[in-house]
Amino acid sequence: MSTVPIPTPIPTPSARALIAEAHAQAEAAARAAAVTIRELTEPSDLGAVAEVFTRIWALEPGQSLMPTGLMRVMAYEGCYIAGVFDDKNGDRLVGAATGFLASDVEPCGGIHLHSHITGMLPEADGRHAGFAVKLHQRAWALSRGLRRITWTFDPLVRANAYFNMAKLGADATAYLVDFYGDMPDGVNAGQGSDRLLMSWALDSARADAAANGTRNEPENEESLLSANQVLLSGIAPGMMPDPAPPSDFGGPLLCATPAAIQDLRREAPELARRWRFALRGALTEALGRGYRITGFTRSGWYLLEQDLDQDLDQGLERDEENERR
Ligand SMILES: CC(C)(COP(=O)(O)OP(=O)(O)OC[C@H]1O[C@@H](n2cnc3c(N)ncnc32)[C@H](O)[C@@H]1OP(=O)(O)O)[C@@H](O)C(=O)NCCC(=O)NCCS
Hints:
The structure is a single chain. This protein has about 325 residues and is α+β, with helices and mostly antiparallel strands. The protein has ten helices and twelve strands. It folds into two domains: about 15-210, Aminopeptidase (3-Layer(aba) Sandwich); about 220-325, no CATH class. The protein has a seven-stranded mixed beta sheet, sandwiched between helices. The longest helix is centred in the N-terminal third of the chain and has 20 residues, at about 15-35. The site of coenzyme A has 18 residues, from strand 4, helix 4 and helix 5.
């Protein structure tokens, strides 16, 4: 029988420095967004979080992605529930994030935070409050000896792919087909629920650089486009997905995502569904051939690479870095 590993506390003093830096980075991001982020435990506050999620995911009033009672017990038992309050507008709740402790045995083991829902109301758009709340979550987790946060997101949503991979420096570790089954909310209904599983190595150099504002963006987009190393095209608004498996399956590949999938779902749901199946087909085929999703470009391409030697090197480097801490 397998046992659940107990998290290894991060050794001091470099760990203390990392935690202090993570808090400072989170506070700087919150200041820049003009928001205050705080943990919530009281039923009335948690009810307000449930309402914010209801609005973001266009649910019927009274329906909820996260019932208040569930959030109450999660908060009581030390899980992560935080509200994002608008400093410019009377401390109004404009977003929230929730996560629970999770464990796995493979591939790297350990207890970590699974961030279940993070959402900002449209009125917070453009202020980067989402970045601030993820940095708050990172500092919270590191303070508790956790080194990893996982979450899932819809791989068709460009903004989220860019946010997760380029702004936060998280890794895509699995493609989960129709993960939640048929979802009834106003954003996902009838569109399948494929998700990418993200894993954020909180004490990695990449996460630290991301928290300081460095982008993790692929630099070879132009050269791959000129060499036609494209697995799926259709990057411009309104285009049909066009699968075009390259003859050379050894080198790096680009895979397109649709422009503004949320608009397509409202205005052209059949095209949106085509994109779901096309992206699923392209990504699962490449992953099946040993590729990994290693980046996302600002213009909407996933970068896929197959470089086992480099993986091994990076894994060893990370192990050595962790040993030193
Ligand atoms: C995902 C979410 C939390 C991110 O928060 P946010 O405050 O928008 O995040 P940020 O502004 O810090 O970062 C988003 C980045 O994506 C960029 N972006 C937006 N649309 C984009 C697009 N179509 N293509 C590429 N990048 C895009 C933004 O410009 C920004 O980058 P920038 O800093 O260079 O301007 C927020 O957008 C949200 O709540 N979305 C709805 C709910 C949701 O999808 N939640 C996640 C799944 S649980």
